[in-house]
Amino acid sequence: MEKLERPRRFVNAEGGSVEQQRDRRLLLHHCANYAAVLALLRETGRELRLLELGCGSGALSSAFARIMPHGWELVATDYSTSLLEHARAHYRQVNLSFELLDVRTAEAGRMAWADAVFMLEVIEHLSAEMASRLLHKVHGLLKPGARFIITTLDRSAFSRPFSGYPPHVVEYSFRSMSSRLADRTWNPFAQFGVYRLVSPRIIVEAVRDEDRFGYTLNRLNRLVCSVCSRHSEVEQLRQSVAAAVFRVYARLPQRGGFELDSYLRTLRFVTTGADACDHSSFGLVVDLVKA
User: Fold this and answer.
1) Residue 1: pLDDT above 50?
2) What is the mean pLDDT of residues 267-287?
3) How many domains does the chain divide into?
4) Can you tell me the mean pLDDT for 153-167?
5) Cα separation of 283 and 9, whole Å?
6) How many helices (H) and strands (E) does the chain have?
7) Burial class (CB in 10 A: 0-12, 13-18, 19+), 21
8) pLDDT category, 95, cuts 50, 70, 90?
9) What range defines the domain where residue 116 resides?
10) CATH number for the domain harbouring residue 84
11) How far apart are CA 40 and CA 34, in angstroms?
């Protein structure tokens, strides 16, 4: 995993961008998502034109573009002009470009050129109805044979079906995601596969942290967000305070450091027998193909 440039300015108020997170397990999770996309698409054995939805700050898109096979091209998109300005200023490569795109209002032709589209760690921010509308929208914009790859966290190993994290609306387990995708009214892609990113160490630590204090803090934060959202002035103040607190927290020293190799040794991308990994899976990878 390459060392990522960490911007001095926080790119957004919601915990900063991925490369600014204090929790290195979260950064590893996101990097593993891109590695899973690469593993799935490399199987085609040909040059590909790729489109990313929700690239954010562009840091991981840039890292992905640096390790793509020769001849691949990536267009990374987001609906935030400020994030795209940041991405264009910091990450410049011949096989990577950044474009403004809101898939909800995208017109025919915006994705027809793409061999594959991927959207990583976004679907959990959408309601089930919004997620279904997004799947139908992307399906209508893709050419036959094109793929749509989605990643999201996996709640299978946790005692609760939802973490309470305020920005998340729906969190999926392997079974709930598989059930949703099998419903043709919810998912228009007839061909799909659900795979897993597993790491016993990450799961043990994540479950422990949530049971100790994480769930309570998430629910409290969610309650505060709900109350403040009713008044725009109060919500702006809440966001400013939250961003300031995060800046301080992200700079606090960490005990013991982060031994990347010890986490990598337990990390696997499981494509066969994925239904047997409920107790070690931290991420879901969904591969959809338009007939």
Assistant:
1) no
2) 97
3) 1
4) 95
5) 29
6) 9, 8
7) middle
8) very high
9) 18-289
10) 3.40.50.150
11) 10
